[in-house]
Amino acid sequence: MERIESTQNKQVKEWKKLLTRKGRKKQNRYLVEGLHLVEEAMKSDAEIDVLVIREDKVTDYAYLYEEREIDAVEVTEEISSMLSDAVTEQGVLAVIKSQESPESLRGDKPVLMLDEVQDPGNLGTLIRTADAAGFEGVIIGKGSVDLFNPKALRSAQGSHFHLSIIHDDIETWISVFKDRGIPVYGTALDERAVSYRSIEPQEKFALIVGNEGNGVNPQILEQTDENLYIPIKGQAESLNVAIAASILMFSLYH
Q1: Of residues 33, 30, 23, 22, the one with CA closest to residue 57
Q2: Residues 6+ apart with CB under 8 A from 3
Q3: Of 42, 79, 119, 186, whose CA is between 20 and 30 Å from 199?
Q4: How far is CA 235 from CA 22, 191, 231, 238, in A?
Q5: Where are the alpha helices (DSSP H) in the chain?
Q6: Model confidence over 51-96: pLDDT tens digits?
Q7: What is the strand order of the sheet 164-167 is part of?
Q8: How far apart are the C-alpha atoms of 125 and 218, rounded to whole Å?
């Protein structure tokens, strides 16, 4: 196993760039951190470039690279800390190739679309819930935080390995789903919106949820088949986007 000791090592510098959106896009790679996410990556068909293991964890995590013959590199605690975004690091990371397959989104099951969702915790929770609800995939629209943000990945808890997830234009996909006869539902709080309870549970649909402060873009709402709201009985003005989407995903999918 190769060992790297210098923080100035060229490879280490390239890995560190993966903590930024610009770096991830340029390299077409991203980092997952922690044992659970690394194991989820290994269970999936993710393309793992290399495992990065802290020197005191090499023996503990030997099974990870031995059973799959994955390249692994031993690094010092200083390097491991430099690459970590977690409060408590576990001493193992994986460098993974970004893979998006728009053709895998057919609408055979429901699809969630995210319009300018900017909080990485919300984005990760939305993906995790879409996975739990049995959705086919998630489309992350322009203006949203990207899936490979470390905090988003932690919140998703590996669910991004179980779904088809792409970063793409929502309006383009509204047209695609309509051409396929698949209803598209937005979420809104205006007078034209209808209660989600008026919609019969179904097997195929697309659901759009929006920005934490402003909701779904009005231009997008004009293109949907129906816009839905969740009746609120208490005095809260609205629900967190991830909570609202969770209610709708489980309620609308038959």
Answers
A1: 33
A2: 55, 73, 74, 75
A3: 119
A4: 41, 18, 11, 9
A5: 10-17, 21-27, 35-43, 62-66, 77-83, 120-132, 150-156, 170-179, 218-221, 241-252
A6: 999 999 999 999 999 877 899 999 999 999 999 998 889 999 999 9
A7: 164-167, 137-140, 111-114, 206-209, 184-187, 226-229, 194-195
A8: 24
Q: What are the φ/ψ torsions at residue 75 (nearest 5 degrees)?
A: -130, 165
List, as own/partner pairs, every contact residues 169-174 make where C-beta atoms lie below 8 angstroms and the sequence separation is at least 24, other chains included.
Answer: 169/141, 169/142, 170/113, 170/115, 170/139, 170/141, 170/142, 170/208, 170/220, 171/219, 171/220, 171/223, 173/105, 173/111, 173/113, 173/139, 173/206, 174/206, 174/220, 174/223, 174/224
Can you tell me the distance from the alpha carbon of 163 to that of 159, in angstroms, rounded to the nearest whole number? 7
CA dihedral 215→217→221→222, nearest 10 degrees, is: 150
Report pLDDT digits (tens) over 104-150.
999 999 999 999 999 999 999 999 999 999 999 999 999 999 999 99
Q: Say how many residues make up the chain.
A: 254
Residue 233 CB coordination number (10 Å)? 5
Residue type at 179?
D
H or E stretch at 203: none
**CA distance readout (Å), 12 to 84, 165, 187:** 12, 28, 43
Answer for the pair 145, 123: CB distance below 8 angstroms, yes or no: yes
The alpha carbon torsion through 146, 147, 148, 150 (nearest 10 deg) reads 100
Domains and CATH numbers, the chain: 2-97 (3.30.1330.30), 102-252 (3.40.1280.10)
DSSP strand E in 65-224: where?
A: 72-75, 92-97, 111-114, 137-140, 164-167, 184-187, 194-195, 206-209
